[in-house]
């Protein structure tokens, strides 16, 4: 299990490194390079709009790769998604700006961001099922929590490289070519990830499906015919986690540097500290999910998020590093209370024959609802003076919607990930 879990963790870390490198670049540098005719605010909004394209692509990627995972096995998903995301990320690093290509530059940027999101959409389902379907039932939360360590590790890698480049180069060098270095590094990470995953075995659940000839012929059709309510509820439930995470890690970078006058390095260090501590807390909450139940942890996470959004914005508006870090940490701990357990919870909600498609589409739908719009909406709501209370109200509203969706989801304790669960049957339409 440790070898399987580490292979899963390595892949998600590399995939999300790619995804987060773009978010940081969008907050700091992509606006002027690819949308120079816009005002600073409009350029930031345009850069965040291209950031959102990756989230729109994620459910599409999860549908395509989910079909592959349910029809042909979880292993091909792990390789294909990693190759696609890595190639798109490296290509962004070589893409000339508007000054060289004109209008073609932002169009190509959008296309490459779409391919990035498409690949990441397939990654999560394959990586999570790799651990969830190998893990013993009583420790499924613990082992399934390993893929959920990938996002914070990937974020720290991406921002660590960006921070190193930012502090060693002049402003002119950083904006000219330094911001591209994290994208170039993605190629080496993708090769390392492929080597780690080369020897991974197919999961027992899929081997049993293949043996019994019980694989779904059209997984996506079956999911939306029999489990559409479950997909919508899980997408709504996870929206707050995405909204909180990208408000902290993407929007706050732009807000701190542009509105508060905090230097780029300080903002990156504050966010990275909070994300690092959130990563350390992930296995703790994953184990608590085994003991207290996945749904209970999700309810607690949504409640904590709803209560912390106004304190978050108040602390951020001070511009003081320690207080900003405290605000970020409180928000991310509320978010990870839920996200540490969803890698065990979502697979338990679906029967094995459509599990790769159902779990991945529901998870990435939450990304569209919570992650795609948050940086754009928050930038528009922030205003020019005083604490960004409009952003706090928006994030609180998202958390309350997610709380209502979780309340309507079934509990899976004790989860039976290898068979069709009563929870999945309960969630199917009458």
Would you summarize the structure shown here?
This protein is mostly helical. Helices cover 81% and strands 0% of the residues. The chain has a single domain, classed as Growth Hormone, Chain: A (Up-down Bundle).
Can you walk through the features of this model?
Helix content is 81%, strand content 0%. It has a single domain (2-427), classed as Growth Hormone, Chain: A (Up-down Bundle), CATH 1.20.1250.20. It has 20 helices and no strands. It has helices spanning 2-28, 30-34, 40-72, 74-94, 98-101, 104-132, 140-168, 171-176, 181-197, 204-212, 219-226, 228-258, 264-292, 294-317, 321-339, 342-348, 355-372, 374-381, 389-408, 422-427. Helix 7 packs across helix 16 (342-348), helix 12 crosses helix 18 and helix 13 runs antiparallel to helix 14. It is mainly alpha-helical and 430 residues long. The relative contact order is 0.16.
């Amino acid at each position: 299990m440790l070898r399987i879990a580490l292979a899963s963790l390595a892949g998600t870390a590399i995939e999300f490194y790619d995804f987060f490198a773009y978010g940081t670049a969008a907050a700091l540098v992509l606006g002027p390079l690819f949308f120079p005719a816009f005002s600073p605010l409009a350029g930031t909004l345009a850069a965040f709009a291209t950031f959102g394209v990756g989230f729109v692509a994620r459910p599409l990627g999860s549908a395509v790769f989910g079909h592959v995972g349910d029809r042909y096995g979880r292993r091909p998903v792990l390789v294909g998604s990693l190759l696609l995301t890595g190639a798109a990320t490296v290509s962004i690093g070589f893409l000339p700006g508007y000054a060289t290509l004109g209008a073609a530059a932002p169009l190509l940027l959008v296309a490459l961001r779409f391919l990035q999101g498409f690949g990441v959409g397939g990654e999560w389902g394959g990586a999570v099922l790799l651990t969830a379907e190998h893990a013993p039932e009583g420790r499924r939360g613990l082992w399934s929590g390993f893929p959920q360590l990938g996002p914070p590790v990937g974020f720290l890698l991406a921002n660590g490289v960006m921070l190193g480049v930012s502090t060693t180069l002049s402003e002119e060098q950083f904006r000219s070519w330094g911001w591209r270095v994290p994208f170039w590094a993605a190629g080496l990470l993708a090769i390392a990830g492929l080597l780690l995953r080369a020897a991974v075995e197919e999961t027992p659940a899929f081997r049993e499906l293949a043996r019994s000839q019980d694989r779904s012929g059209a997984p996506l059709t079956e999911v939306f015919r029999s489990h559409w309510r479950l997909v919508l509820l899980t997408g709504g439930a996870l929206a707050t986690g995405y909204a909180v995470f990208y408000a902290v890690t993407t929007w706050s970078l732009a807000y701190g540097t542009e509105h508060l006058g905090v230097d780029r390095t300080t903002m990156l260090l504050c966010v990275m500290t909070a994300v690092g501590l959130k990563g350390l807390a992930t296995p703790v909450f994953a184990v608590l999910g085994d003991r207290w139940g996945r749904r209970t942890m999700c309810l607690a996470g949504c409640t904590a998020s709803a209560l912390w959004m106004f304190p978050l914005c108040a602390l951020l508006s001070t511009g003081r590093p320690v207080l900003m870090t405290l605000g970020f940490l409180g928000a991310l701990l509320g978010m990870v209370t839920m996200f540490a357990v969803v890698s065990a919870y979502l697979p338990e909600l679906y029967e094995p024959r459509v599990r790769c498609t159902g779990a991945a589409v529901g998870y990435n739908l939450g990304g569209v609802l919570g992650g795609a719009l948050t940086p754009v909406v928050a930038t528009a709501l922030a205003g020019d003076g005083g604490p960004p209370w409009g952003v706090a109200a928006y994030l609180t509203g998202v958390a309350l919607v997610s709380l209502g969706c979780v309340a309507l989801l079934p509990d899976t304790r004790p989860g039976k990930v290898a068979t069709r669960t009563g929870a999945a049957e309960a969630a199917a339409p009458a």
